Amino acid sequence: MITPVNIGAAPNDGTGDLIRTAFGKVNTNYNWITSKIGADDQAVTLGGNIGKRYLDMTAANDTWEDLQFPITTLNPIGVGNPATVVATSGQSGLDLALQYTTNNTLYAFAQMPHTWTVGTDIFPHIHVQPQLPLANTIVWNGWYSIAQEGDLFPVSTAFGPFNTNIPAGNQWRHLTLKMPPGGISLAGMTDQVAIRFKFQVVSATNPFHVLSFDVHYRWGGSPITFTP
To answer: Within the chain, which residues score under 50 in pLDDT?
Structure first.
């Protein structure tokens, strides 16, 4: 854990840490933080890439990681109601995105990384940007199915519908939506875990672009048991 440096009650009052002691604490804190963050892994996990870790100092398990899905993995060939791939989106004109409107569907397939803390909740996010400067209300339905190694995928669990209200004036802004807002429980899961996600736009006041999909999960703790 972080060890605070004692700076005393007032400047030069002689009650704070000596210089050597203070910098010793700095070194200890640096080593603790880097041990929590680890390397910037880029291991592929069924279409998702592991992003950089970041710390939440207030959480019991205080290191989080992103399992990231680029848009090229969210719109597989052969699915019903696919989104439209757009080569340019935004003021820069250099972005690749998926244009979504009513009935379009997003798919994602994930194996939880072996660094996931067993049994902790996960938090899926969809990154979007409004295509027009108008207010937009997006109504979503979602489904997921979770299986451990050797298990059958069960019938999908449905959630929603739930609304995302985007105020006017947010054209081309990068917005993050929690889907579902309260996250998904993986309590009781102890082995290698794979998840299938499906999100469908029930209705949208105006078209919008999906930039990416990701899953936030707790890193560390008691990781998934894995024998290569």
So the answer is: 37-48, 50-59, 61
CB atoms within 10 A of CB 155: 8
Assessment of whether the complete model's pTM goes beyond 0.85: no
How far apart, in whole angstroms, are the C-alpha atoms of residue 179 and residue 127?
10
CATH 2.60.120 domain extents, the chain:
41-218
pLDDT tens digits, 65-85: 888 887 777 877 667 778 888
State which fold the 41-218 domain adopts: Jelly Rolls (2.60.120)
